[in-house]
Amino acid sequence: MSLKSALAGSNPPLLATTGPGSSSATVAPVLTARGITKELGEGAGRIMAVKGVDISLRPGELTLLMGPSGSGKTTLLSILGCILSPTSGTVEIDGTMTNTLSPEQLARLRRTHIGYIFQSYNLFPTLTALENVRIALDVAGFSSAAGYTRAEQALRVVGLEPKFKSYPANLSGGEKQRVAVARAIASAPSIVLADEPTAALDSENGHGVMKLLSEIARTQNRSILVVTHDPRTLAYADRVIRIEDGLIIGEDRGDHSALHAANSHAAPHSEPDAPPQAANSDDGEPTHGGPPTLIDLSPSGRRSKRRRKGLQKNTGNKKLA
Fold first, then answer.
1. Which residue, 77, 100, 67, 73, is CA-closest to 229?
2. How far from chain centre, in Å, is Cα 204?
3. What digits encode the pLDDT tens for the residues 269-307?
4. CATH code at 220?
């Protein structure tokens, strides 16, 4: 089944397209951030991790946010995803200013507009691949029947139809990351944020995941932002934004395959299906244990938590504009 046909037929649709001749460069941004700063730590250890960043994300575009360890890229990703609040500046998502929202409203915005892909997969070990995708849809408010249908569609999109009933322990690293991609796109968010999605993967699986994300950006007309310092990802980008010491220092557009080839000899090599790395991000912050919606404490979130407990029991406890 082709990617496009696998995405069709759901409600709301997994597939979204622009009009004839449309271009991401001429489409209004789905996310706009202005003057973003973020201070971390206290006292003598207090640092300015992000220093006045402007950035916008458009539909149909895969953007890389690249920088060395400690450059502020993971902190910025968390702010754009409404996980962290900026010290100053504004984030606007689909016309909504996030700084005016309550915690429950922010959680609802995340569930509606943002999908997350984490370096360490963050799959529930006692749930199958299908159930791991389904549980995110439960949190997003889909009915049980609709949730399973969409979960199946999303897993087909990432090529994992034969693995519906497989548990994470029986999946390779590349397959686990594909489940994480399926979980991120299943509710048809307008934005997908990925934190080092290739870092724990060997070359073949890393290229496979990036090719998949590139296809999803174009075919689904989603805005995808990938935080990375892996030069293997360059060939798949529509835009590359470079960050250093908390500041945006440049932006490139167009074909990056030549640059990728020039850097390929310096590309990091990990063992196939290497386990996730340390529990801290490159900005010195703890990595997130999972999508923030999974710890939503709103009334609807508590109901979802009770439904998830039942599900686990039934599975055998097993700008730059």
1. 67
2. 20
3. 333 333 333 334 444 443 443 333 333 333 344 344 444
4. 3.40.50.300
